[in-house]
Amino acid sequence: MSQRTFSIIKPDAVRKGHTGGILAEIEKAGFKIAAIKRQSISKDQAKGFYHVHSARPFFDGLTTFMSSGPIVLLVLEKENAIADLRKLMGATNPANAEEGTIRKKFASSIEENAIHGSDAEDTAAFEIGYWFAGYELL
Ligand code: GDP
Q: Does ligand 1 come within 6 angstroms of the Cβ of 116?
């Protein structure tokens, strides 16, 4: 059954001109782009999005980074989308990411790691609803 997940091309990748390269990898892997928009977000918007990490030592740096330049917000669709996108992304730290993954190809550090992908059905639902209105998902 088709499933939706949420993804972000992070500011480091957009800045370096990797938006098209990352979208190509995503489409090549069989995902349909159900919604897409490029925008700059505020630090408060980033904090709301990453609220589960609010107690972590990297929270301030992460939310500063995420609001440091334009990002690309995506809703992606395919069978098993959530797990398959996580596989395609690779490990959080690009030093540990497998060959052929997006983070291996495009990420530069554990923080500036090019892409976000939801890790479960409930977080995907929260994240899609956080960034997209119903009429953008028709
Ligand atoms: P993900 O699901 O692979 O994106 O990883 P997490 O949900 O654990 O963390 C969210 C994001 O916080 C990561 O993608 C990184 O951008 C950042 N992050 C995670 N761990 C660290 C860390 O130890 N140090 C720093 N600076 N950033 C981190």
A: yes
pTM of the model: 0.98
Domains of the chain and CATH, by start: 3-126 (3.30.70.141)
Answer yes or no: 116 catalytic: yes
Nearest to 85 by CA among 120, 52, 137: 120
Please choose from 110, 112, 116 the residue to mutate so as to test ligand 1's pocket, defined by most ligand atoms within 8 A of CB.
Answer: 110
Q: Which helix (H) or strand (E) holds 8?
A: strand 2-9
CB 132: neighbour CB atoms within 10 A? 18
Q: What is the pLDDT along the chain (138 residues), one digit of tens a residue?
A: 899 999 999 999 999 999 999 999 999 999 999 999 999 999 999 999 999 999 999 999 999 999 999 999 999 999 999 999 999 999 999 999 999 999 999 999 999 999 999 999 999 999 999 999 999 998
Residue with the smallest CA separation from ligand 1 atom 25 is 111
CA distance readout (Å), 6 to 27, 70, 117: 14, 17, 6
Instruction: Indicate the SS3 state at residue 86.
Output: helix
